[in-house]
Amino acid sequence: MIFQSHYAPVNIPEITIQRLLFSNPCNTPLDKVIITHGITDRKLTFGQVMDGVKKFGKALRQEVGLKPSDTVAVFCPNQLYYPVAILGVLCANGVVTTVNPVYTVPEFRFQLENSGAKYIITVPEFLEKTLEAAKSVNIPKENVILFEPMSGYKDVEAMIARTRLTGEQGEWDDFSGERCREQTAYLMYSSGTTGKSKAVELTHYNLVANIHQYFRAVTWLDADKDVVLTFLPYYHIYALTYVMHFMIGIPVVILPGFNIETYLGCIEKYRASFTPSVPPVCLAMLKYPHLNKYDLSSLKRIVSAAAPLGLELELALKNRLDILVVQGYGMTEASPYTHAVDMEKDLPESYGSVGRLAANMEAKIVDEDKKELAYGEIGRLLLRGPNVMKGYYRNPEATAEAIDSDGFYDTGDLAFVDHNGYYFVVDRVKELIKYKGLQVAPAEIESHLNEHPNLLDSCVVPLYSADEATELPFAFVVADPAANPRPTEKEIQDYVAARVAPHKKIRGGVRFVSEIPKNPSGKILRRVLRDQLQQSQKQ
Ligand code: 4UW
After folding, report:
1. Do the Cβ atoms of 188 and 237 come closer than 8 Å?
2. Residues near 228 by Cβ (< 8 Å), separated by ≥ 6?
3. Which H or E run includes 384?
4. What is the Å distance from ligand 1's center to 231 Cα?
5. For a Cys-Cys bond, which of 138, 259, 385, 490 suits 361, CB 3.0-4.6 Å?
6. pTM for this predicted structure
7. Ligand 1, from 311, 325, 329, 389: best to mutate by most atoms within 8 Å of Cβ?
8. Ligand 1 close to Cβ of residue 337 (< 6 A)
């Protein structure tokens, strides 16, 4: 059967993301502080954001010659002006691709090349890496813009400061109707159910839809009282959309990374009431011995998403802090919100659940033969809705594999739904590994391992660490019997670590095997090795 959302459908306007912001849907006063940088305490008001977005968009066209549909890569940790810059790109009719700031040069280069980026916005500390990657794909130095002033470069704030708005039509780009469903706003990277990282095309309509769907569910959020604190990186869809969700009215305090003292200190300092989080941070909070040192009385709600939280941890943190701790669920390909537990009040029936299906969405749970299952039966979760991506960029095969002819996207997660409409995600059957909520594509790590001169084959699977409440990449490898000396576990871990961003390191360990099990057509039987690893963990 097809499961419907229990929320009343919401009307989704065919407007651009920038139009949504400028229409001021929450009637936010222009002088209200809407973004604060938790470390520097610098702030932007709603009026400054709107003004800055328009001006930066205009400056991009006038000063650097950005053309419609040009892609701009943003490569840095969270900055005060990050959201202003990305919305400015949209105002110039450009496309944004956000890059993980800890990427190595080859990883960055891959994304630049794959997305066809023509411009890069970064910070002076990352300039060396940026110029190296830019050069390799022929992006000239003049197309690199910084968030801070530096001689020889344009910077976002200065570009905004010297741009004048005249109020004439066309000063910032806008369109409506069908084109909003077609035009890509963001190219976000995800490995989907299989293979390496791919660019997910999210349109203006996808994002505008997801914001409306989210606000249909989150009726308790009070623009006058709530303050949101997040350490989540903007480059990942979780924070990117949250910024979009909240910046239209709810004040957000951003941090450039996670540090328990800074995080707790900011809850106290800014009287944060709501903090979107991930399981390892929930665990870190629970275990932190000096929690009582901080005044956390403003904190009312934590949502954990991006990886499974676990019922025990959910309840333990809830009881420790005496607040609501619930889960949200979604994926890059769905812009990302598809499920969340309503946080209006404590709902014991929702414990352990990722929540109810978003408004305007439909779900199917299917078995291996694609037969539709009923309430309570575990199967693969498929989702359809206005927030589901247009497809993988320039990759029709991967798109056809992910979205069926009826428009259902295969999440690659195993789930069941109960009669109250609560979904429970019980396993992940797609290849993806989640290290602290961040994606690690096994295929990418395997391609490095398979290039190792003394290895013949490999398979990378997740190893769950209860100590850190996260999965860790773990490698099964076949060593070349002729190799002398034989490679060691440490040498292999170092080999991969030297080639990938830190979250992709094989932290779980390495096991030498004589062969990697495969089916007759040569496809790796990951499940066999994953089960084997789980068994040995239990012993
Ligand atoms: N339980 C179990 C969960 C859960 C989960 C995600 O990197 P991506 O593509 O995307 C994300 C999105 C996070 C997110 C979605 C919706 C939302 O409202 C929100 O804020 C509350 C955040 O992480 O990874 C997608 C994959 O991550 C796993 C699952 O396998 C999914 O397909 N995942 N949330 N609560 N697994």
Report:
1. yes
2. 242, 246, 250, 251, 252, 253, 272, 273, 274, 275, 276
3. strand 379-384
4. 16
5. 385
6. 0.96
7. 329
8. yes
